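Model it.
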Amino acid sequence: MTNTNDSTINDSTGQQVIDDLFAALTGDDIEQLLHTRLVDEAERDGVLDVSYRTIDSPVGSLLLAATREGLVRVAFDREDHDAVLAHLATEISPRILLAPHRLDGAATQLDEYFGGRRRTFDVPIDLQLAHGFRRTVLTHLRDIAYGETASYAMIAAASGSPAAVRAVGSACANNPLPLVVPCHRVVRSDGSIGQYLAGTETKQALLAMEAVT
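Modeled.
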């Protein structure tokens, strides 16, 4: 038979422990708990359309975003992450939340890439932000092997429009998935490095890193 007094004491002790734990929580802790619950409920109800996180890298902070289909955006810090998130909310869905665990795979593979331990990415990707010829160009960029380069003219020819060299440059400049879709490996026909969304210094650093690993 359960002793009523003992049960009351145990209930009281348990409640005190809970009260003490909550008392020790800071405002940030509570906000994080509420956010985690919001993410869990959104995922459970199937209403989390875009998840995102940021990671540190040798080329600065990177914003990663994913849909249910896969990685949809990689953005450099100089692109203004807040502006990128606003664009995602407009172009894909306003149902967007910070949900780091959804992007653990992409974050891990990027860390391995920068550490010289990965040469290809195999995370699922979502190219819905690229359309028409730009999307065709991006599919060919993935064929440029680690440590190698291709000219804008070569990519134009591979994409079925040899004269569309400028359009290839535009596709690279608007690549929603830099690094994973390696537009940094596209250079000018004369061997000069060409432009890059994150700056020519970053492009040179990435090519140099790939050349020695």
